[in-house]
């Protein structure tokens, strides 16, 4: 109910009027059934614009920091994330990664749409970085298609470090679903998981024509001075 009210009555109309988001390939989102929506990640606003522009509700696996903030800003962020269907996950690795996988599988098991950023974090410089294999493991385990999505211009509207967005136009391109049924039953094979993940990243790179770098975005962030990020 909160999701519907925010999307169609409160946040949705305002965001559409200000930013005039455009979309190509909306029909590639299946009308029913579970699927993973795999998107590049340029801005925190990606998680606002993408759900706003597709007809079905969807959930993103969001870092738990968004749900633990203090004060009025922390409360507002938490309410917004919960109201728009975002699911908190711990990204510290190990058992936390396994818990995140299980959470995602629960969403897919209900026949819903699950949004994942295969890079694992926002791009620090607009490039497309190496994908994490958790996405592939989830897709093969749940036996669902992966729909590649490229976000465009969201880093100009709300770059890293900016809390108030600039006014500008953003868009998204939704590609045809990727079928990995040939790998079903092989979700424990790390070479298969890497192959599937790389295929998804190639699709994203071709759709968005971002410069690709075969390292993890988190590694690049750790190398950059604090002032640069």
Automatic annotation (TrEMBL):
It comes from Microbacterium oleivorans. SMART domains: PlsC. The lineage of its organism: Bacteria, Bacillati, Actinomycetota, Actinomycetes, Micrococcales. InterPro entries: Plipid/glycerol_acylTrfase. This is 1-acyl-sn-glycerol-3-phosphate acyltransferase. The keyword Disulfide bond does not apply. Residues 35-154 form the Phospholipid/glycerol acyltransferase domain. One of its GO terms (cellular component) is plasma membrane. Keywords: Acyltransferase, Transferase. GO terms for biological process: phosphatidic acid biosynthetic process. Transmembrane segments: none annotated. It comes from the Bacteria. One of its GO terms (molecular function) is 1-acylglycerol-3-phosphate O-acyltransferase activity.
